[in-house]
Amino acid sequence: MKFIKYDDVGSFGADTLEILSENEVQNNLPIGFIFNERGNDTSNWLLTSIKDETGSVMLTAACTPPFNIVMYETRNKPNNEALKLLSAELHAMGFVPPGVLAEQGLARRFAEMYTINNRYHRHMSMNIMRLNKVNMINESLGYCRLLSKDDLYFAPYWERSFGEECQIEIYDIPAYVKQITARIDLNKQYVWIDGHPVSQTYNARNTQNGAGISGVYTPPQYRGKGYASSVVAKLSQTLLDRGSKFCFLFADSENPISCGIYRKLGFYDLCVFDELKFTELNTNTYEQ
């Protein structure tokens, strides 16, 4: 087997995009790296693959610091030899990702190989879900509209609260303003209005055929009234009407309420991803 490190997303995509696209929703993150719709600086990205003796890609791994390394075994076929080689090459390079995000079994096998004399813990488990057609629901009172720059008085604070609840990286308010303004300019973010703003969501990364949904947030005082269902249904239908063949999202596996909402709308589970965080400790155990 051979470890390949790519210098740019173009060469990485030339080798891996066709394989990643065989499971397009599962691989929406590395596919998003290849397309790089936001035009991010890729100079410090780690883009790699492991090829067998025939030149076929067996394992794909990519990391966009400071985020986790994301990986995929071709056709979800376990390949421990490829994982061992990747782990050895990362150690040889001195490249230390904060954790791994991948299909549950793959994430755990890699963590066990990579964290020799170390320790890792599960930060989160997420269902990757897909929707092909929006189910009919009883909409909540109110209506859906695009977010506008007039909404920046509340939207960045909702975004930060969403990050806190989901235990993801938190930024300062000016950073949220910048992110949200970019979505507003691209008509990607929507809000549900019932006299005033009560719930929101936005179109995140896209793949060749699918549209990602993220940032579903309803402030606690407005929950239990179906606002989240209504705004996600509207955005999903809008994305399908624009030409996407399906929508997809990540949902907290341990939150039956949100997963239940999405399933009622027509989303169904594809696989479970584990986000495992690495910790520099002198042990090699997995903490539940």
| SSE sequence, one letter per element | EHHEEEHEHEEHHEEEHEHEE
Secondary structure category:
alpha+beta
Count of the domains: 2
What is the terminal separation in angstroms? 33 Å
Return the CATH class of the largest domain: Alpha Beta
Radius of gyration: 20 Å
What form results from the Cα inertia axes?
elongated
Strand percentage: 25-35%
Question: Which second-level CATH architecture of the largest domain applies?
Answer: 3-Layer(aba) Sandwich
Mean pLDDT: 93
Instruction: Give helix % range.
Output: 25-40%
Number of helices: 8
**Parts with pLDDT < 50 across at least 5 consecutive residues:** 281-288
Sheet with most strands: 13 strands, mixed
According to DSSP, the number of beta strands is: 13
CATH topological fold name of the largest domain: Aminopeptidase
What does this structure look like?
This protein has 288 residues and is α+β, with helices and mostly antiparallel strands. The protein folds into 2 domains: 2-126 and 273-287, Aminopeptidase; 133-265, Gcn5-related N-acetyltransferase (GNAT) (Aminopeptidase). It is built from 8 helices and 13 strands. It has helices spanning 9-20, 28-35, 80-93, 104-114, 155-166, 173-185, 227-241, 256-265; strands at residues 2-5, 46-51, 57-63, 69-73, 99-103, 119-131, 143-146, 189-193, 197-206, 210-217, 246-252, 268-279, 286-287. Strands 1, 2, 3, 4, 5, 6, 7, 8, 9, 10, 11, 12 and 13 form a 13-stranded mixed sheet that branches. Strand 10, helix 7 (227-241) and strand 11 form a beta-alpha-beta unit. Helix 3 (80-93) packs across helix 4 and helix 5 (155-166) crosses helix 6. The longest helix has 15 residues, at 227-241. The chain starts with a strand and ends with a strand.
